[in-house]
Model the fold of this input.
Amino acid sequence: MKDGNIDYSLYTARELHEALAGIRRDLYPMNYANALVALGALDERAGAVPNETPPAIQDKSAASWIMPVWFPKAYRLVLYAFLFVLLTVNSLRLISGDLSALLPIAIQATTLIGLLTRNPWTWILVCIWSAIAVFSGITLWLAILVRGAITEPMFQFTLINALMFTGIFFLLFARKCIGSVSDPEA
Done:
């Protein structure tokens, strides 16, 4: 699709607002401008004062990322897999006698149950769990900066870094991907 090839003159006001919300202005500036012109012409025909940008667009910056339709489902699948791995590791820690694994197991199991039952508060649990993961990674890095050397085995250091970065990923998109439970197919 080339920029500027779409004729927006036959669109309804609702269709134009949806189109404006979905157009990436950085990639298709002419389509965006043409949709605005068509909306202005539609507003003039209806006797309304033309609106330069619909309310759905006013919040977004030109560089905002539009989430693909498949992203929330993929997010949930990755979250399920990650929670399963962490529950397995923490269960093994608990079996070996490490009682400090009880708290992570409780948080991860509650999060998993919330995801499976599609509770609207689950995104808050994911944010709390992700914030703990990010905090643990940051404290590890601060300890390295203070002490100057890695005292943990390299595998554990790599695992904590991976946990920190995936925690950032889960923290950023939790509300958008699992904050609404209206998707019956997810």
About this structure: The first helix runs from residue 13 to 22. The two ends are 30 Å apart (CA to CA). Residues 55-64, 181-186 have pLDDT under 50 and may be disordered. The helical segments are 13-22, 29-45, 55-58, 71-95, 102-117, 122-147, 154-178.
